[in-house]
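Build the 3D complex.
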Amino acid sequence: MTTDTGAALELGDIQAATLMPRPNPYAGAYLALRIDDRHAARELLRRLIPLLEPVSSFDPGRPVSLGVGLSFAGLEAIGVPAESLATFPSEFQQGMAARAAEIGDVGENAPEHWEAPLGSKDVHLVVAALARDTALMEALVVLAQDAVRDLPGVSPIWQLDVHVPPDGREQFGFKDSISEPTVEGTNILGSNPHEAPLKAGEFVLGYEDENGDLPPMPQPEVLGRNGTYVAFRKLHQRVAAFRRYLRDNAADTEATWLAAKFVGRWPSGAPLALSPDKDNPELGGDPTRNNAFLYGDDPRGLKCPVGAHARRMNARDSVITGQVRLHRMIRRGTNYGPSLPPGVLEDDGAERGLMFAFVGAHLARQFEFVQKQWVHDGKFIGAPAERDPLIGVQDGGEFTIPQRPIRRRLRGLPDFVVNRGGEYCFMPGLRALRWLADLDT
Ligand code: HEM
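Done.
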């Protein structure tokens, strides 16, 4: 299959980790490394490249897989020439911490409260490692550590172990990673048969995007082509506070109903749009049906509130200000930390949450726009006082549940999610990684 530019997607060059769905369940780890010596970093890339898979030879049965990205500071540290660095978009050059005010990372989410070294100029190279189970994962991390042991110029400075449980549920108890866009030119099956495939240029550099443009591509072409951007965020989830809020604001039988109104889906993954009154685990577990819906028959949000998290993040055919297709993203969410046992309402002090990863060709138009407008400003749905009820920085925000005869309005929402830190990375194609490894500056 080809894109409209006539250029076939070079699936043999694009890192599989960008486009391919990951196995489920799985264990994984994010590793951040600092580069003190560019020659050592290039040697590390030479060792990593043979371990990376392109989309074309991705094997879902493979026990382990890796993805590699570099921050702007990392590209500088490995010796990318200044004239090339200048061709990266300014938001990427600045990095996530410098963009905090733009993307709603304020108050306790602000970079001065982030976990070190996140948000510092030391996060250079990020490796995401996935394995079928924890034992394989540990073996993989040991291999990765061995790969840098004799390279004193590259230091591992941070690690976060992540996992996806067999039921695919995130820490609040809802099945996640159901809805993903289809990418034109790949044969990866999309999850929503009602959404036309998105142009490859929305997710990979070097191809036409939804505006009919070639997205600005870092130069030289060998570096930019087939690359993409990743925004990762370590999002702490206040699970006990979430449960207490539900208990305090809903009669016992209603707590799951209220939570589903926040999310837009029931815990099993069944969408409110298809099952408005009660959970339907059979529907939630059926990948051919659990994302096959639109919101057009529910303009007022009587089934799924227009302000529910999933509906804000992808309003589908709802009437909103702006165009949904220009702000779509590929998501890779994974849990970190222990889950809070069912029924526990007191915080146990454990650090738990979701390691969120955005993948897309446009950091500003996709990730930053969504954080700013769809998460933190309700104007696009005609509810200026409302923010995303699940992940927004609330500032005393409201959430409306449309109902007959009278709507329900919740006021003074607390924050259920806090950002512990993150970074923007560039995930180069395989040819580009070889180019970086062979730099002679
Ligand atoms: C701790 C933080 C978060 C939690 C617990 C969470 C949870 C969920 C859940 C349960 C779903 C429904 C499952 C699905 O449709 O795949 C969902 C969907 C989604 N979320 Fe989140 N999410 C979080 C953070 C974020 C962030 C930071 C973004 C973007 C900036 C985001 C964007 C989306 C998108 C695009 C969808 C799919 C909507 C659709 O296509 O219907 N989420 N999320």
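The pocket of protoporphyrin IX containing FE is lined by residues 170, 172, 174, 176-179, 235, 237, 263, 265, 309-310, 313-314, 329, 331, 353-354, 356, 370-371, 390-391, 417 (CB under 6 Å).
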